[in-house]
Design brief:
This protein is mostly helical. It has two domains: 44 residues; 157 residues, Tetracycline Repressor, domain 2 (Orthogonal Bundle), CATH 1.10.357. The protein has ten helices and no strands. Helix 1 crosses helix 4, helix 5 runs antiparallel to helix 9 and helix 8 runs antiparallel to helix 9. The termini are far apart.
């Protein structure tokens, strides 16, 4: 009897061995010795399998890091770093699949179908982190901008995935360096900066236009 995991594993094995998707669900099911109807109990298409694999990458990572005893002691910056380091450690086990999938994603302004569910999972995680950071003052609340912080974190995912695919360094040490620098720069931008102080000062002066300097 087919299971979700068995179908996923068989699909990944097929595309990595053959270099393309199966010609039909019927042929795929027959090759792997299960009934076609069993396939549709879990997936509506081959694209749905791929989307499910990506979603599992993200949900598994989040579950793993949140189950760590030290999780509650981390700052939001450290939690974000923990996600990315753990995420790419997980991807190492499926690098051939990730490389294949990334090379077949449709490029454009919109999120590829294969990553939509994964993005929703990551955005939910990101919103929780950002809200925690706003409440602890680790992240600066900026009108009209704070709601876009989650997009900046998703951009880090996209950038680092492409970087990792091209990384040929030993143990992907360049990717580890890119994670550290990229996440730290992003959270530096999330925090209060001299520009925020300048804007607050300008707002204060605008609200107190009648104030006169003593010289």
């Amino acid at each position: 009897m087919a299971t979700k995991q068995k179908i996923q594993n068989a699909y990944i094995d097929y595309i990595l061995t053959e270099g393309n998707k199966p010609i039909s669900v019927f042929a795929f099911a027959k090759k792997n010795k299960f009934a076609e109807e069993e396939f549709y109990q879990y997936f509506g298409s081959f694209e749905a399998i791929e989307a499910g694999v990506w979603a599992d990458f993200f949900s598994t990572t989040i579950k793993e890091i949140q189950n760590q005893e030290v999780w509650t002691t981390y700052s939001v910056r450290e939690k974000a770093l923990s996600f990315f380091y753990t995420f790419f450690e997980l991807l190492k086990k499926q690098r051939s699949f990730v490389t294949y999938s990334m090379s077949h994603l449709k490029k454009g302004l919109h999120t590829p179908v294969a990553l939509k569910e994964a993005k929703e999972i990551f955005e939910e995680f990101s919103v929780q982190l950002i809200q925690e950071g706003l409440e602890s003052n680790e992240i600066n609340d900026r009108k009209f901008i704070s709601d876009r912080y989650k997009d900046a974190l998703w951009m880090q995912v996209a950038f680092l995935l492409n970087f990792w695919i091209k990384d040929r360094s030993k143990g992907f040490e360049k990717t580890d360096e890119a994670i550290e620098k990229g996440v730290n720069v992003t959270f530096d931008l999330f925090q209060r900066t001299p520009i925020d102080n300048l804007l607050d000062y300008g707002k204060f002066l605008a609200q107190n236009a009648g104030f006169k300097m003593p010289f």
